[in-house]
Amino acid sequence: MAGGYGLAVVILFVGAPALLSDFRLRLLTQFLCLAMVAVGIGLAWGRGGMLTLGQGLFFGLGAYIMAIHLQLSDAGPGGRPSFMVTGSGVPWWWELFRHPVVAVVGIVAVPGLLALLLGLSIFRRRVKGAYFAILSQASAGAFALLLVSQQNTIGGSNGLSNFRQFFGYSLSDPVNRQLLFFITAGLLVAMVAVVHQLMRSRFGELLTAVRDGEERVRFLGYDPAVVKVVAYAVAAVFAAIGGALFVPVVGIISPNNVGVVPSIGFLIGVAVGGRATLLGPVLGALAVSYAGSELSARYESVWIYLQGLLFIVVVAFLPGGLGSIAQMLWRRRPRPTADDSGGKPDPFAGAGQDGPPLVDDPGPQAMPVSVRTGDAQ
């Protein structure tokens, strides 16, 4: 397993910059930003059972904070963006992100604190399942509508665009664009490592236990709401960082990038790759983003329907993602009879077929809770 991760890192940091053209490398950088969102969804949905349909909210917060800083940086000290032709000047909340350090802190802190507040208000009231999914999706839709209504402050439906610099480095320089790729790739690898460590810790055991049997975890003395809030906030921060890096790579951010449809698009990549695995969400997000880039230019309307069909097929027939096809074929291989095997039991008999539950439902009653109880008091 470690060898596979090492090979993926080598391909990412050595193979991609050496083999891809400047345009393709920029496109890959854009896909890596979306993969960051997928890593967080994999933690919250795949490991925690929380169907997060509104990650566009946090993606958009990080993106707009970065866009505001880049616009002010391009305007110079005391300047204001060209689209603000009316009004009394730069809004006070824009001025907060003029300094680069404050902007970076805001990209992490604002979505993280909002996720903590939303998570506490939702999970303390034991809202879960389809109700949580609808609430999260509604938050992304409301955020997009709010952005559209703010024409004079954040560009309305046109959004913010035409960025020239990234923390003082020209975005038109190919060397700087390659540096931006390495920054994005490095942060993505760091996020995967963080999730890997979380899942190997006591928190990972609790998160899986909450997914499989929330009431039983509560009976053991733990608070499932706190566990879910932490996972939800980590996923929000990952989405915000992906959104912040998406802005200088693509050169524009608008309500179309943060609404309901993009939020569902994030989820489709995770479902296709396998939400309960570590690298499945990353690979799924990269594959769906690439397919969308290739197909949407030629068949834009067809790609939207194909996305929906792909999501339905994967959730209904391949809940473990496309990566689970090999595992399913292995389980369905011809098995030796009792006479052929000398009466030894098949070690794969009775293994789970459907992967983790779609949302945070109670799970099968026969499944034991995978949490140690030594310090549950």
Written account of the structure:
It is a single chain. With 377 residues, the chain is mainly alpha-helical. 65% of the residues lie in helices and 2% in strands. It is built from 14 helices and four strands. It has helices at residues 2-19, 22-47, 56-75, 92-95, 100-123, 130-149, 151-154, 174-200, 202-219, 224-250, 260-273, 280-296, 300-317, 325-331; strands at residues 160-161, 165-166, 169-170, 252-253. Strands 1-4 form a two-stranded antiparallel ribbon. Strand 2 and strand 3 form a beta hairpin. Helix 5 runs antiparallel to helix 10 (224-250). The longest helix is centred in the middle third of the chain and has 27 residues, at 174-200. The chain is globular. The two termini are 36 Å apart. The model is unreliable at 347-355, 361-371 and 373-377 (pLDDT under 50).
